[in-house]
């Protein structure tokens, strides 16, 4: 079973981002938090995102104001495959997360409490991607999927009724002169508001040109249709590559405590696609004819009034030094609960494999274009340890050291080295400014030696490398023995 992990008191240095008490500036979750799904349960909001190849996966976030979010649990600890586009919901006394496993189908996990523990995954045995759960006025439970399809669920919501998969909606026709990746209708999000069921869909392709992705709206008075497209579609869209936020889409409707409505969706930041798709929040209004409009239009880069005025502002990165695995830190493709431990500000990580790729690097989401992070490393003689900006097993950059040399890693391979005299103890630092990473090492954590190697990483994004990944900073340890990481520091620049 998967669940929450209690924090261990650690020391860390994090430069905290400040925001006004009454306004916020997007993103609400900076960095790679794509395909957001959000639900409200009384005064509490819960959200989760695509996990892709990282474990523990399907982190559940909690908020009471839609702006400040804290991770509280995670749903997966075993690698099933790449995890896409979940849907978190509550039905009866149970919480559900429906999700897609690439090339394997759709699954569901459940919990009595969103803090966990979550059940083992159950295979729904239905094709399609991006599942969305909804129950109609008769109590019939449905799962809606990409391509305008739906199927009936059994009363427990844990399997699909055989023979009920059908296409019920064809989407909104994108104008022929728009530049997109094609129709690619996905990410259905349905909600009953008043007399209408509203169906939000993402179209145009998730990445590609800045103007590709968009969110369209349809409605019907019956869950069975017919579905009428909004006359003011699309609800959100990037119209020009000069805008700050590209490929906006995959939106969900959510109501604030005061009754106003908002949408939560994802987008890439112009010039920094390697950060991944970030989570944004935007107000919407209902027009007199019942259709939905996003009044901010295409400019969501300016400060906006918070859904809850005067609410506290938190910084999710302030807990990095607590090494909360599954909440702040994740592993690539394989999670071993006994491999990492933290005590008194020191993370002990068991080395494994013979390369950084095989080591299962331990990573976090920085969520900002310009930053630096550093750490003191003490290792056993047969271990190699380092820092990385990791996209996938084939494409990452970083720096490592063994007993004699500091080594640069570029495009997933060792590319140059210099001698050091630190033996098994060294401080390492990576600084990232405008997509260029600089490497440093030190013998005391104060006097830093800059390496001559600069690493340009703007191309480490889906449009060039595919996989819908992002560059994630973190640690790795391969070889044999234990590696201790201490004096961790993270600063936004």
From TrEMBL:
One protein family per Pfam: GH43_C2
Positions of the catalytic residues: 35 (proton acceptor), 186 (proton donor)
Record has Coiled coil as a keyword: no
Keywords, comma-separated and alphabetical: Glycosidase, Hydrolase
InterPro entries: ConA-like_dom_sf, GH43_C2, Glyco_hydro_43, Glyco_hydro_beta-prop_sf, Glycosyl_Hydrlase_43
Keyword Hydrolase: yes
GO BP term, example: carbohydrate metabolic process
An example Gene Ontology molecular-function term: hydrolase activity, hydrolyzing O-glycosyl compounds
Segments passing through the bilayer: none
Every Beta-xylosidase C-terminal Concanavalin A-like domain range: 325-486
Positions marked as site (Important for catalytic activity, responsible for pKa modulation of the active site Glu and correct orientation of both the proton donor and substrate): 130
Family from the record: Belongs to the glycosyl hydrolase 43 family.
UniProt xrefs under PANTHER family: BETA-XYLOSIDASE, XYLOSIDASE_ARABINOSIDASE
Protein name: Family 43 glycosylhydrolase
Species whose genome carries this gene: Mucilaginibacter mali
């Amino acid at each position: 079973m998967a669940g929450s992990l209690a924090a261990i008191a650690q020391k860390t240095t994090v430069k905290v981002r400040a925001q006004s008490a009454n306004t916020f500036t997007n993103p609400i979750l900076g960095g790679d938090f794509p395909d957001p799904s959000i639900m409200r349960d009384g005064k509490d909001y819960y959200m989760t995102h695509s996990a892709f190849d990282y474990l523990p996966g399907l982190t559940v976030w909690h908020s009471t104001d839609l702006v400040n979010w804290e991770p509280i649990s995670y749903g997966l600890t075993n690698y099933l495959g790449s995890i896409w586009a979940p849907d978190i919901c509550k039905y009866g006394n149970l919480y559900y997360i429906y999700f897609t496993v690439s090339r394997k189908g759709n699954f569901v996990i459940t919990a009595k409490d969103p803090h966990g523990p979550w059940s083992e995954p159950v295979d729904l045995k239905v094709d399609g991607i991006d599942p969305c759960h909804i129950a109609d006025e008769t109590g019939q439970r449905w799962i809606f999927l990409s391509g305008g399809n739906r199927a009936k669920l059994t009363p427990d919501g844990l399997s699909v009724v055989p023979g009920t998969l059908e296409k019920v909606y064809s989407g909104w026709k994108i104008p022929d002169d728009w530049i997109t990746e094609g129709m690619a209708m996905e990410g259905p999000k349905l909600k009953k508001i008043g007399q209408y069921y509203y169906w939000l869909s993402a179209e145009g392709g998730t990445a590609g040109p800045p103007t590709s992705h968009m969110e369209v709206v349809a409605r019907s008075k019956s869950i069975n249709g017919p579905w009428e497209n909004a006359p003011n579609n699309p609800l959100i869209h990037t119209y020009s590559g000069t805008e700050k936020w590209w490929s906006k889409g995959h939106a969900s409707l959510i109501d604030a405590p005061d009754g106003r409505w908002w949408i939560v969706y994802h987008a890439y930041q112009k010039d920094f696609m390697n950060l991944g798709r970030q989570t944004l929040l935007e107000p919407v209004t209902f027009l007199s004819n019942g259709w939905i409009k996003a009044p901010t239009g295409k400019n969501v880069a300016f400060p906006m009034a918070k859904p809850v005025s005067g609410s506290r502002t938190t910084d999710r990165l302030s807990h990095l030094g607590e090494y909360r695995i599954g909440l702040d830190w994740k592993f690539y493709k394989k999670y071993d609960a006994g491999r990492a431990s933290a005590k008194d500000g020191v993370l002990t990580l068991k080395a494994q494999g013979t390369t950084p790729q095989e080591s299962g690097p331990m990573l976090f989401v920085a969520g900002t274009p310009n930053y630096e992070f550093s750490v003191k490393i003490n290792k056993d003689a047969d271990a190699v340890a380092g820092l990385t900006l990791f996209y996938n097993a084939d494409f990452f950059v970083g720096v490592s050291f063994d007993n004699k040399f500091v080594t640069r890693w570029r495009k997933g391979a060792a590319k140059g080295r210099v001698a050091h005299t630190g033996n098994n103890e060294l401080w390492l630092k990576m600084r990232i400014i405008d997509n260029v990473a600089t490497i440093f090492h030190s013998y005391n954590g104060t006097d830093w030696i800059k390496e001559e190697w600069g690493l340009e990483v703007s191309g480490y994004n889906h449009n060039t490398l595919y996989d819908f990944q992002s560059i994630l900073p973190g640690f790795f340890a391969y070889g044999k023995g234990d590696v201790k990481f201490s004096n961790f520091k993270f600063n936004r620049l």
